[in-house]
Amino acid sequence: MTLEMIIPLLAAAIVAGTPILYATLGEILTEKSGVLNLGVEGIMIVGSLTGFLVAYSSGSPWLAFAAAGLAGGITASLHGLVCLIFQGNQVVSGLALTILGTGFANYFGTSYVGLSAPGFQPYPIPWLADLPILGPILFQHDPLVYLTYLIPPCMWLFLNNSRYGLGIRAVGEYPEAATAAGLSVAVHRWWGIMGGGFLMGLGGAYLSLAYTHLWTNNLTAGRGWIAVALVIFAFWRPGRAVFGAYLFGGIMALQMRLQASGTQLPSSLLLMLPYGLTVVVLVLSSLGRGRTGEPAALGVNIEPAD
Amino acid sequence: MRVVTIISVLLLSMVMAAHAAAEKELQVGFVYVSPIGDAGYSYAHDKGRQAVEGMDGVKTSYVESVKEGPDSERVILNMARKGYDLIFATSFGYMDPMLKVARQFPKTVFMHCAGFKKADNMGNYFGRMYQARYLSGMVAGAMSKSNILGYVAAFPIPEVIRGINAFTLGAQAVNPEVSVRVVWTKTWYDPATEKEAAKSLLDVGADVIAQHQDSPGPQEAAQEKGVYSIGYNSDMSGFAPKAHLTAAIWNWGPYYSEIVRQVQDGSWKAEAAWRGMDAGIVELAPFGPMVPKQLQDQVRAKQEEIVSGAFHVFSGPIKDQQGAVKIPAGSMATDQEMLGMTWFVQGVVGTTE
Prior knowledge:
The complex is a heterodimer.
Chain A: H1 3-32, H2 40-58, H3 61-85, H4 90-109, H5 134-138, H6 143-161, H7 163-173, H8 175-180, H9 185-211, H10 223-233, H11 238-260, H12 267-287
Helix pairs in contact in A: 1-6, 1-9, 1-10, 1-11, 2-3, 2-4, 2-9, 2-10, 3-4, 3-9, 6-7, 6-11, 7-9, 10-11, 10-12, 11-12
Chain B: H1 2-23, E1 26-31, H2 41-53, E2 58-63, H3 70-81, E3 86-89, H4 95-104, E4 109-113, E5 122-127, H5 129-143, E6 148-153, H6 158-174, E7 179-184, H7 191-203, E8 208-212, H8 217-225, E9 228-233, E10 244-250, H9 253-265, E11 272-275, E12 282-284, H10 293-308, E13 318-319, E14 325-327, H11 335-339, E15 348-349
C-alpha cells in the first residue's frame, strides 16, 4: 500500500467512525451514571430522522443537528421513565426502546424515503488543511467531524474534574454512598440518560446530514449496536472510545478498499471483519476484567429513598 | 304475448348482466419490498401500477415495505381473501409464500417477479436488464479517461453478475483498454455503505461509477468527486445532475397493462416470461448533457440492433477472468446459461465470492 492509498483510507476511517463515536460517547456517559441503555440504535434512528426532517423543512443544517440531539434526549427520557421512576428492568427497557425507535422512524419516515435535504459539506480548516499527511486525514472534513475532536477531552474533564461529573460517576459506582453524601441518584442518572441520548441523537443525525444527505429506513444499519460493544472495548474511557470508533471505521473503509483494489479474498470474509472484530474485542476486554472501569452499579436500579 | 314477455325478460336480464359486468372492476394488488419513494426498484414497479390504474374497469392498490418471507405471505393472503383478481408480488423472496397462497385460491391470478416457480394460476416474469446494462457500459467506457470504471454491487447472485458482465462487454466494445472494478456491499438499500463503497472505487482511480443498488448513495459520491455516474432502476439524475450520464431503468407499465388486459378477457395463461428491450420493459434513461451527440447516436444504433434481435449481448467469443473461453465464437449464451451465470468476463477486477 502506498501513501496515496493510506491517506484516503485514514480519512475515510475518521468519517465512517464519527457516527459511532458520537453514540459511543453518549453510551459511556449514560453507563457512567449506572444505567445500561441498549436503546442506542433506536435513539440514533430517531435522531437521524428528526435531523433530516428539520433540515428538509427549514433548510438549516445546524438547527437540524440541534433538533436531532434534542429528539435523542427526549427518546432516551422514556428509558429514564421506565428505569428511574418505575424501577423497570434496564435491559428490557433498552431493547424495547430500540424496537420502538426503529418502528417510529419507519412509520413517520417512509414517505420521505428517497428525498434529499441540505446538509453539511466538507469545510477544510484554513492552514491546518494544508499540512502534509495530517491535513488531508484530519482537517478536510465537515464541521461535525471537527466537533468530535473536541467532545472527548471535554467529556474527560467533565467526568474527572467537575463536581457534577464526579457526582454522575459516584451514583454509577456506589449509589448508597452517593446518597449518604447528599447526592440525588435519580437526578444524576437523569442527566446521564438525557445527555447520553443527546449525543446518540447527534450520531444518528451525522448519517442523514453529513455522511449522506438522504433519508431511508434503517439508515443506522446496526451502528448503535457496535457503539454498545465499543463502550466495553473503550473501558468506559472517552479517549479509548475515539481509538475504537476510528478502528471500526477504518476496518469498514479498509474492506471496501481491499475489494476495489482487486483482492482475491472473498467479499463475505471481508464484510465480516467489523463484526468479527467486535467479538474479538469483547473477548479480549473480558479477559482484563477487574480494571476495566466498568461502573460497579451498572444496571442496578435504586429505590428512591422515602 | 308470452313470447314477447319471455323475450323482453331475456333482453332485460342480458342488459342487466352486461351492466353488472361493467360495474365489476378488476381488483389488482401489488406487493413491494421497499418504500415506493426510494427512486429505485419499487418506485419503478409503482410507475407500472399507475399505468394500470389508468385503464378502464381496473382498481389497484399496493402494500409497500413488505419483508420477504412470512410477512409477505400474510399480505398476499389478505389480498386474496379480500377478493383481489390479480396480485403482483415484485421481489424474489415472495416466491414460496405466493406459491402457498396461490394453491389456496385457484381462481385468483398470481404474478411473481424475479423468481422461477410456477403454478396453474401463478406465472413469473422479469426483464432482461442486462441489455440496458450493455448500452450503459458503452456510455461509461467512452466517457472514461482513466480507463477504470467502478461498479458498486449488491450481492454476488447471477442477476447482478450478469449485469456487471454485460456492462463490461459494452464498455470494452467502445474502449478495449477499460477495466471494471467491483465492490460488493451485501445490501440492497443502505445509502451510507453504498456511498462509502463508491468512494473506495474513486480512490483507486475510477472515473465512472455504476451501481446495482437501490439507493442513490453512489451517485452522490460521484458528483462530489466531480466524476461521472450511471444510475439504475429509475432516472437518478435528480440526485446527481452533474454526474449522471444515463441509467439502466425499468419500465413496467406496458407489461403490466398487457397482463391486466389478458386477465380481463380471460386469455391469461401461467408462463415464465423474460422480456427485454423489444417489449419495452428495460430502457435507457435520457442522456445527460455531457454525453456527446456522436456517442448517443452510436448507443441508440446498438439499441436498435438489440431490439431487432440482430445483436445479442452474450455472443462469443467471451472469456472469463482466467482467459478460458466460456462462450465460443459463433454461439451465444442460452437463457439457462445467463440465469445461472456465476463467473466474471475478462476485464472485471474482483471476485464473485
